Amino acid sequence: MDESKARFTKVLAVTGSILLWIPMLLPLVFAIFSLIQRGKFLFDFLMPGELFFLELAGAAMLIWAAVRARHLLKPIAWGFGVVILALVGSQLLAVVTGIASGKTEAAGLPWILVLAMLGVFWLALIFVGVSGIRLVRHLFKD
Q1: pTM
Q2: Which one in 6, 7, 54, 78 has a CA-CA gap of 20 to 30 Å to 41?
């Protein structure tokens, strides 16, 4: 790969990783501000789902960079596939059970299932984010 193509691949990987990590780190930053200002640690675990457009853009860049680098494509692509399925699954479950509309109280087995899907979403998102960092490290080791 010539130098300009390698540089573009690095830019894709770094930018994609940053875009992917922003929605995961913002809730922590806001929770720390809340702890300092109000004395309460309020962590918005739904924020990454609300900022999915950033994750989508970041994952697209990471997949593109992984294709160009011929490195870590499968973990990034499969991991992001799990991210999408878990997010859609949690939303679908919330709608079907009535939790999303408020018809059903957010408690019991339906709520546990929705939270479990959100947990899978978070874990898969972290996995893709770490894979993005691994891709960046691979690209810059030369």
Answers
A1: 0.92
A2: 54
